[in-house]
Design brief:
There is one protein chain. This protein has about 280 residues and is an alpha/beta fold. It has one domain: Alpha/Beta hydrolase fold, catalytic domain (Rossmann fold). It is built from ten helices and eight strands. The protein has helices spanning about 70-85, 95-105, 130-140, 145-160, 165-170, 180-185, 190-195, 205-215, 235-240, 265-275; strands at about 5, 10-15, 20-25, 45-50, 90-95, 110-120, 220-225, 245-250. An eight-stranded mixed β-sheet has the order 1-2-4-3-5-6-7-8, sandwiched between helices. The longest helix has 15 residues, at about 70-85.
Length: about 280
């Protein structure tokens, strides 16, 4: 597994899938990037350069835990670009990884060719998801056999009387079967310090980020899952409006990891945009 040096000397690892023009991929979590798999077969179209965020996967643990902050992780992406010798990179981020790549694009706009934000979080942009939006999406699944228990857990979370997010997991998936359960478990962050520090201090400066992105020349695809409780289509549409060349795509029947719900549809949509 190839490695490179971050600005502070931490050794970071990345995986390579496929051939052709590179697409740098940044996972969410912060979690082991293996949960991304091959992103629904994207290596048939592009060479995936999949970063292991510091302290996850095969990347080293930093001595300074504040370096887990989202704004500092954006500079790890820049170090990877320099290591690869690429003047411009196409970037894909998933979930919390979209916070990293949007901050990267705000800081290094001239280094971004095309940007793909899959199930984007809104913290870097100052966008929040309302409890009402989550309930409305959840109620679309009322016919599912797992709905009563999952909805009760969701209500408790939204009302502040419970915190059993694992019981809410079915709402993050387009279907709740054995493979979905295993994938959901594999995508959980397993570095408590990285998770705690990701948004610490002033890791997010939404006003400055939005102002910088308002002048971003790069085309941006924001892809939402129709049923994603974490990143509802309405919220993703709001984020798309912040980019001069933002384009919204909603994948029917998909959850938070849309490539696991319909791999061909996901890969085709991303490949067409990148082309």
């Amino acid at each position: 597994m190839p490695t490179f040096s971050a600005p502070d000397g931490v050794r970071l690892a990345y995986r390579v899938h496929g051939d052709g023009a590179p697409l740098v991929c940044v996972p969410g979590g912060p979690a082991d990037s293996r949960y991304l798999g091959d992103l629904g077969g994207l290596p048939a179209h592009r060479r995936l350069i999949v970063l292991d965020l510091r302290g996850t996967g095969r990347s080293a643990l930093p001595g300074d835990v504040s370096s887990y902050r989202c704004d500092r992780l954006a500079e790890d992406v820049e170090a990877l670009r320099v290591h690869l010798g690429l003047p411009v990179i196409d970037l894909l981020g998933h979930s919390a990884g979209t916070d990293i790549v949007t901050q990267y694009a705000a800081r290094h706009p001239g280094n971004v060719g095309r940007l793909v934000l899959v199930a984007p979080g809104g913290r870097s942009l100052g966008i929040t998801v309302s409890a009402r939006s989550r309930r409305e999406l959840a109620l679309l699944r009322a016919h599912e056999p797992w709905f009563p228990a999952a909805f009760a857990a969701l209500e408790a979370v939204l009302e502040g009387t419970g915190s059993d997010w694992a019981a809410v997991d079915p709402f993050f998936c387009g279907r709740w079967d054995g493979p979905a359960r295993r994938h959901r478990a594999a995508s959980r962050p397993d570095n408590a310090q990285a998770l705690a520090q990701f948004a610490a201090g002033d890791a997010f400066t939404p006003g400055a980020t939005r102002a910088a992105l308002a002048a971003l020349a790069a085309p941006v695809l924001l892809l939402a899952g129709e049923l994603d409780l974490n990143s509802p289509p309405g919220t993703v549409a709001e984020a798309a409006g912040l980019f001069p060349r933002g384009r919204l795509s909603v994948q029917p029947g998909a959850g938070h990891c849309p490539w696991t719900d319909d791999a061909d549809r996901f890969a085709s949509a991303v490949a067409a945009f990148l082309a």
